[in-house]
Amino acid sequence: MTDWDLRKLRVLQALDECGTVTAAAERLRMSPSAVSQQLSALAKQLGAPMLEPYGRRVRLTSAARLVLGHAERVFGQLERAEAELAGYLHGEAGEVRVGAFATAIGGLLVPAVGRLRTRAPGLSVRVVEAEAAEAYGLLAAGEVDLALSLAVGPPAAGDPRFVRYPLLSDPLDVALPPGHPLAGSTGLRLADLAAEPWIYGAAGPWREITLGACADAGFVPERAHTASDWPAILAMVAASLGVALVPRLASAGRGGAAVIRPLPADLPARRVIAAVRTGTEAAPPLRRVLAALEAVAGTVKRG
Question: Cβ neighbours of residue 168 under 8 Å, at least 6 residues apart?
């Protein structure tokens, strides 16, 4: 296979565009003899003459024009690569795959993608829905580049495989059935609900978060029903099957008939974090997506 020399091809292109060896040499800031030497070397390398006499001048041979036709396509592709690389280095191009749990997709990731569409339209974000506990597995396997998860459960915070970025402390509200005696209480405490039937998942981060918040309030919740889907949980609460802790990202605008009440005295919350693989944290597209997520998280906190 021929070892193509792009510098020699640039000389051939300049001669074609300028018409004479002297003019090509001036454009390239080379001597005419250096231009001739480059073209002679190219002809020897390719095994075909590049120039032929044309009166007192020279002109490109048919072989040279064939080569130049391909070379120009190569140059165009290289220019596009340079432009894309420049965009990548500024975080304005490339692709970032994000694994995120459902409420983080709706509350953080979708608004962040909206920001990026106007600020970095060449940057593509691919969304992969994954439970908070699964996101790290996808990240470790290289199936996503960034994971949105919760700061509970494995892996440990000091796991050297990942770099973590705290994004948001998402307040936990309590969902009560309509007509519940405490539904209108302004000073509601989590301990006031110790005797209630509770609805939460059988395993995973949300179970740990619910049990942890109730333990901090001094009781162990009796799980009357098992569910992990927020619409299902809120529907069950609305049907007076029990009460549940609900993150604000999940309940915003979706409470339905259930009554959502804050817990200002207890202030339970879940911590949402972003994570990337160690060694990738400086990649410009990742930094741009992280910045957009942090900006959205800031508006959620202020709201």
Answer: 108, 249, 271, 272, 297, 300, 301
- Name the DSSP class of 190: G
This prediction has a pTM of 0.69
Name which of 293, 58, 50, 252 is nearest 164 in CA terms: 293
Of residues 168 and 157, the one with the higher pLDDT is 168
pLDDT tens-digit readout, 207-235: 888 999 999 999 999 999 999 888 899 99
- Secondary structure (DSSP) of 152-183: SSSSPTT-TTEEEEEEEEEEEEEEE-TT-TTT
Give the C-alpha separation, 272 to 152, whole Å: 9
Tokens read off for 203:
């395993």
The answer to whether the CB of 160 falls within 8 A of the CB of 130 is no
Question: Which of 187, 209, 188 lies closest to 200, judged by CA?
Answer: 209
Q: What is the pLDDT of residue 260?
A: 92
C-alpha closest to that of 294 among 170, 169, 167, 164 = 167
Q: pLDDT band for position 302 (50/70/90)?
A: low
Judged by DSSP in three states, 221 sits in coil
Which residue, 45, 43, 8, 46, is CA-closest to 28? 8
